[in-house]
Amino acid sequence: MALSKMEGLEHDEGERLAVDYVEGILQPTPTCDTWVQIWNFQARPDDLLIATYPKAGTTWVQEIVDFIQSEGDADRCHRAPIHDRFPFIEWKIPFLESGLEQAEAMPSPRTLKTHLPIGLLPPSFLEKNCKIIYVARNPKDNMVSYYHFHRMNKALPAPGTWEEYFESFLAGKVCWGSWYDHVRGWWDAKDQHRILYLFYEDMKENPKREIQKLAEFIGKSLDDEILDKIIHHTSFDVMKQNPMANYSSVPAKFMNHSISPFMRKGTVGDWKNHFTVAQNERFDEDYGKRMADTTLTFHFQLKKSQIQPV
Question: What is its EC number (predicted)?
Fold first, then answer.
């Protein structure tokens, strides 16, 4: 795979994890190697699961949920890095316990995280009727964010050039599979199970309304003062500076923030700075075909003038 000179240099430092397939979905090999244990993971009825396609607002929702559960207590939410507070059930970061080990050692009630498509979700979550929060992000911004995440995260394959990654994403040949299959699968399941389906763009446009939805779903009643505190502490600018939320505690040999920070922009519409006219036309055509027979719709820019300057 051809890389630009700059990208070639940034990817030569340190070895990256290999990848393989689980039921046709690309995954890092540590996930593949422990798939039987992941599939047989035993959820508890009071587990809360946060599910997303990668780079769809996962960390943001995790932090919001923690603040809701802590009723706005910032000290409590700063108790540990976010990857310690929320076991990532299918993941094995080289310097940490696996998500399975973290989850099994955690007392109830647990809040867990996954990027798995609904078809690969361990069956016990649905059998135990667990509450699940799903967050979806428009695919153009999701693609851009995931591309930059690949660049800095050595636990994922090198993305190649932007042009190459664009093709890989469209084809679903990226870790955790096709964006289309992911968001549609969870959308189709939401009315049969206890799934709250949220949109990244709605959260950017009206965080108070969406945080209230989350609190209600979780079973917490929060007054305006606490809601405003949560909005402040979970804003992009505050989280970007928070070492308990911004993954800066992860060693640079695994996540190199000098290549691209984990919390990069947090905006809606940054895709316009990456997509060529031809790519945008091609993407729109593909999107139109792939989303023609679903009620699921996305916004590619905010209705209000809330897009941060680039």
Answer: 2.8.2.-
Q: Is 115 a catalytic residue?
A: yes
Amino acid of residue 159: P
The answer to whether residue 298 is domain-embedded is no
| Whole-prediction pTM | 0.86
Residue 159 counted as domain residue = yes
What token pair was written down for 163? Answer: 């042009």
Residue 165 token pair: 């990654």
Which residues lie across from 25 on neighbouring strands?
Answer: 22
Contact criterion met (CB below 8 Å) for 165 and 24: no
Tell me which residue range forms the domain holding 127.
5-288
Active-site residue (options: 11, 78, 83, 115): 115
